[in-house]
Design goal:
Structural class: mainly alpha
Largest sheet: 2 strands, parallel
Oligomer: single chain
Radius of gyration: 22 Å
Shape: globular
């Protein structure tokens, strides 16, 4: 009989999952990255968001097929492990770890942009240190109420995005703001360079990472094969709709990156466009709240992922499976992620975001390839035209889209990405004793190793 005390509680509904997914996506992030994306795309940010959404919807389809086959936690790591082998699964999991490690850094950089706009005379590194310290302390003290905290912050952000769209449209209509209500150039214009659009879509892919996070809650969801697919598509579509609509109205107000005084810190300038000091304060507060919620959630998630890998002896168990007896949290992992997040002092927002995408695009690619391996190669399930569409056409298009965007990453992202990949390979060699044994795989019947506990 299965010990329920060692399993996750199945309690999450579709809309709870959607809220969690949107919390990871951080709706207000569109304003933070808009200036950078506008510079890359030549003023076609909305078009880049549409391209990214379409590409990811094919991958979302592949997630659905793999969730139905393996309704367990682990997402891309689990699917690759089951569809191919445990060695490749470990490497995909290692690259996915890179995404979650850099996400708190991105949030620290965004918070630094907000606070520098308010306190320009304070050295920017102080804000990063303070933000990381607060984020780490929250995770060290408690994890209770995280879902409720995320819900309130997500609602706050959605309200502010909606308010921005309404105020921008009204301002353009009555002439108080310079812009056009009909501005198709935000999406497409003659002579547009397709490579710049792809590069922009590649940068913006990290905005959609929340839908991947939804797949990781399969073991905490009732009827996961039905609930997760619905939540996954709703998260991608609702998040995509917010990004596309809001970016369209920002583009009408700021047609090119040159219209910003500093396009790398676009949020304060967008808030100032409306003149009202009260609106600016609330707008910036919503953005800052989003960075806190996303940072706390991502740090908590990655610390648990590292803990799970340590418990399974994929990483040194004595360190990474350590749990504090007081807070019952993986104390060492939380502090480690906090220390890593401090390196945001040496990065730009654009560079940190591109590092996230290196691992994410590879993980997404293997989710697509896992569909082909599991359904076509292993189980020979091509019996109808519908099967060909679901198990071959959709994952092929999804894989091709991810590969195209992966090759559009900048050289800095490639350099750090391959260094991380090499470290993972060395770790795999060590844990498998030179490929003589398999890395640990999840066993439903096995009793997990008891974690080490200290005061």
């Amino acid at each position: 009989m299965q010990d329920n005390s060692r399993t996750l509680k199945r309690s999450l509904s579709v809309w709870q999952l959607v809220v969690l997914g949107l919390g990871f996506m951080t709706p207000m992030v569109i304003f933070d990255t808009f200036g950078i994306a506008s510079d890359i795309t030549g003023g076609h940010v909305t078009g880049a968001y549409i391209i990214a959404l379409i590409a990811l919807l094919f991958t979302a389809g592949s997630y659905v097929f793999m969730i139905r086959a393996f309704p367990s936690a682990g997402s891309a790591y689990t699917y690759t492990q089951k569809a191919f082998n445990s060695h490749l699964g470990f490497m995909v999991g290692w690259l996915a770890l890179m995404d979650y490690l850099f996400l708190p850094m991105v949030n620290a950089l965004i918070s630094q942009i907000y606070l520098t706009s308010i306190f320009p005379d304070v050295p920017s590194w102080i804000f990063i240190v303070a933000f990381v310290a607060i984020m780490t302390l929250i995770n060290l003290l408690t994890v209770k109420g995280t879902a409720n905290l995320n819900s309130s912050f997500v609602i706050f952000q959605i309200v502010m995005v909606a308010a921005f769209v309404v105020f921008a449209a009204w301002g353009v209509i009555n002439g108080t703001l310079e812009g056009k209500l009909w501005y198709p150039q935000a999406i497409f214009s003659t002579g547009i360079d397709s490579s710049t659009m792809i590069a922009g879509a590649t940068l913006l892919v990290f905005s959609y990472l929340g839908f991947d996070a939804v797949a990781g809650f399969s073991e905490e969801t009732t009827h996961p094969t039905r609930t997760i697919p619905r939540a996954l598509f709703l998260t991608a579509l609702l998040g995509g709709l917010m990004f596309i609509v809001s970016s369209y109205f920002v583009q009408t107000l700021y047609p090119t990156a040159a219209d910003f005084e500093d396009f790398t810190a676009s949020t304060p300038e967008i808030a100032a466009k409306f003149g009202s000091v009260v609106f600016q304060v609330i707008f910036l507060a919503a953005g800052f709240a989003g960075t806190i919620a996303s940072a706390v959630s991502s740090q908590a998630s990655v610390s648990r992922l590292i803990y799970a890998m340590g418990r399974d002896r994929m990483l040194p168990s004595s360190w990474f499976s350590h749990i504090s007896s007081r807070s019952r949290t993986p104390l060492f992992n939380i502090v480690l992620v906090g220390i890593i997040s401090l390196t945001a002092i040496f990065f730009s927002l654009e560079l940190a975001a591109s590092f996230i995408n290196f691992g994410a695009l590879i993980a997404f690619s293997f989710v697509n390839l896992s569909v082909i391996s599991h359904y076509v190669v292993k189980n020979k399930m091509l019996h109808s035209s519908r099967d060909y569409l679901r198990y071959l056409v959709v994952p092929i298009i999804g894989t091709a889209a991810m590969i195209i965007m992966w090759f559009s990453l900048d050289r800095h992202s490639w350099t750090l990405g391959f260094i991380w990949l090499a470290l993972g390979f060395l770790c795999l060699l060590y844990t498998t004793k030179g490929f003589k044994v398999k890395p640990a795989e999840f066993n439903w019947d096995a009793k997990p190793e008891e974690p080490t506990i200290s005061a």
